[in-house]
Design brief:
The complex is a heterodimer of chains A (343) and B (276). Chain A has 343 residues and is mainly alpha-helical. Chain A is 76% helix and 0% strand. With 276 residues, chain B is mainly α. The chains are: A mainly alpha (343), B mainly alpha (276).
């Protein structure tokens, strides 16, 4: 246990104090316009003159890294999707172009659309649970005393810190048919049908285990973010809302959500991407079974591409997946880019 | 704020139950790894290891080249984290502090890069690495892990930089610092928690990555720990004790890092996340 002083939650008080005084100064400055903004204006202009190429120089390493290690493989992948590239072609370094044939067979097959729908549902359920649970726990953290808050935070840090490769094995063990503790506990609680229940026997319970694993590991991130956001809202705002007779739900809708809107949008964006692309959890826990009924798009691409060694096919599935994700996220890009204007 | 006693008890109870739920899988992993194999097959699970044993750890670590796995994992992960941190720090200062043409385009690029389908890119990555004769080496793994965590690192760090009031930098400039000095003396110390938080995040991602390692490192001396853990499971079938021992060992560095850094790092994550 850290010393008592450390138990003011998990924040670093020294730094936040500095930040706070900074924002307070900003507010005060905004009140008495005039001298200050003009001084900033001048400083900015001097800043801009030497900022000419500085930002580009600063961005250069990132750009190079992204182009070499992300864009290049992606373009390569895209080219592969127009080829027939199986184990034979791979070993023999043969390039065999087949145009849109891979795409045709994907988009015309019923399988792809079934999996697409499944992936969308899978993502929606996960993200709703993660955001709902994370927000509620974030609100709860804000209400707790320091000791209990510290306890809950530590527990969440543990859940968060376990690497996925390890957490998936743990969840398999928890839900094991023969000696799993969950089946045992459910049977003890009176659900005698659940003794030695095989969670992998149908897609719903198999997905339930995967979703539990993902939600369990994702909630801490959201909860800490929301809690952090809450601590920046001044308590006077809550007091005022309460004096006006606002209930808890109303306060969330009219005070908390509007103030933390960028935070919520940013977090939802990340969670959608992470859940939509979650490969390891599904692959390691269910392997896509029973009979392919828990296959989501990334798993599909992986199984077709790496598993079946149909690399062209797998690449085409990945390309379609990315386009779908971008289309679904496009409204999101606009919202987030709009927030950038307010910087 | 007005709080009734009943309300406080309710909240505390909910919080403690939640804490139990969150900690249980981790607790169960560690407990199982210490429980003798006999007890694992008994009708009632043993919730406390009454006769703790290190047998499972022996089984799990009794593989050829085990120390190599550690070296490989640590090299790839730490290298990737440090490199991406440096690159992201530069980029995030530009994005958060400067106005220039193409700023939005860069942010959009980061958002799209964040969606890169790594699970499938490994096909082309495998061919690229093979064509450069770098299969079975740690360097490509390090570089691609760096790229994997870079978008998120930039995305988060830029919020941390943005959260530091401009006035602090302004006053340093007025006091006679140049831009570089102002950065090292004022911004960098304030960024420390942010850097820790993002590096922890990168560490988890790179440490736990295995599909890419699976195709790039196919011979045992070049395995990473993540590969060892996932192949291990299929090798030993239902030896849950040994599997949990492996999972515990594998999680240990991350858990320890979190414990060392949690106060500053999680506090840091919070400070930087605020701006969204």
């Amino acid at each position: 246990m850290p010393p008592k002083g450390a138990q003011t939650g998990l924040r670093d008080d020294g730094d936040t104090a500095v930040l706070r005084s900074g924002t307070a100064g900003e507010k005060a400055g905004a009140g008495n316009a005039g001298g200050r903004p003009r001084r900033f204006g001048r400083r900015k202009s001097t800043g801009n003159s030497n900022a000419g190429i500085t930002p580009y120089l600063l961005l250069l390493p990132a750009l190079v890294a992204i182009v070499v290690f992300i864009v290049y493989p992606s373009v390569d992948e895209l080219l592969i999707s127009f080829q027939r590239l199986n184990a034979f072609e791979l070993i023999g370094h043969v390039t065999h172009w087949i145009g849109f044939a891979n795409y045709q067979s994907i988009l015309s097959s019923g399988t792809f659309w079934v999996i697409f729908n499944r992936t969308v549902w899978f993502t929606v359920i996960n993200v709703v649970l993660i955001m709902g649970g994370g927000t509620l726990i974030g609100l709860l953290l804000n209400r707790l005393g320091t000791k209990v808050r510290f306890t809950l935070s530590i527990a969440m840090v543990f859940a968060w810190a376990v690497p996925v490769a390890a957490s998936t094995t743990v969840f398999q063990w928890l839900f094991d048919q023969q000696t799993g503790v969950v089946d045992w506990a459910l049977a003890k609680l009176g659900f005698s049908g659940m003794a030695h229940y095989d969670w992998m026997s149908n897609e719903y319970t198999a997905f339930a285990v995967v979703i539990l694993c993902i939600v369990w590991q994702s909630i801490p991130f959201v909860a800490f973010n929301v809690y952090a956001g809450l601590t920046t809202i001044s308590t006077e705002l809550f007091e005022a809302a309460r004096l006006d007779g606002a209930g808890a739900v109303r306060i969330f809708r009219s005070v908390i959500f509007p103030m933390l809107r960028p935070l919520f949008f940013g977090t939802v964006f990340l969670e959608i991407i992470w859940v939509f692309g979650a490969l390891n959890q599904v692959l390691l826990i269910t392997g896509g079974n029973p009979v392919g009924k828990t296959v989501t798009l990334p798993v599909y691409a992986y199984l077709e591409g790496i598993g079946e060694q149909g690399y062209g096919m797998g690449s085409a599935i990945a390309a379609v997946t990315i386009v779908m994700l971008c289309l679904m996220m496009s409204f999101y890009f606009r919202i987030i880019l709009k927030q950038e204007d307010e910087l | 704020m007005r709080r009734s006693l009943a309300g406080r008890i309710t909240f505390n109870t909910i919080a403690l139950v939640l804490a139990l739920i969150f900690i249980f899988p981790v607790y169960w992993m560690v407990t199982t790894s210490l429980t003798p194999a006999m007890d694992l097959f008994s009708k009632t699970p043993s919730f406390f290891p009454t006769h703790p044993t290190l047998m499972h750890f022996k089984t799990a670590t009794n593989v050829v080249d085990f120390s190599n796995f550690w070296v490989n994992s640590l090299t790839a992960t730490l290298g990737a984290v440090l490199l991406s941190l440096v690159i992201a720090l530069m980029a995030s200062v530009a994005v958060a502090r400067m106005r220039f043409r193409g700023r939005k385009a860069f942010i959009l690029m980061i958002m799209i890069a964040q969606m890169a389908p790594w699970a499938v890119l490994q096909i082309s990555i495998y061919m690229i690495v093979r064509n450069n004769d770098m299969l079975e080496e740690v360097l490509p793994l390090l570089l691609f892990y760096m790229a994997m965590i870079l978008p998120f690192t930039i995305w988060t760090l830029r919020n941390f930089v943005g959260a530091i009031p401009k006035e602090l930098e302004e006053s340093a400039l007025i006091d006679g610092c140049n831009r570089v000095q102002a950065f090292w003396r004022i911004i960098f110390p304030l960024l420390a928690p942010g850097l820790m938080a993002t590096s922890l995040f990168g560490f988890i991602t790179a440490w736990g990555e295995y599909p890419l390692a699976l195709v790039l490192e196919q011979e045992t001396p070049h395995y990473t720990l993540a590969l060892w853990l996932t192949t291990f499971q299929t090798q030993f079938g239902n030896d849950w004790g040994a599997t949990m021992a492996a999972a515990t060992l594998f999680s240990l560095p991350v858990l320890v890092l979190f414990m060392i850094m949690q106060r500053r790092a999680v506090g840091g994550l919070t400070a930087g996340a605020v701006k969204g």
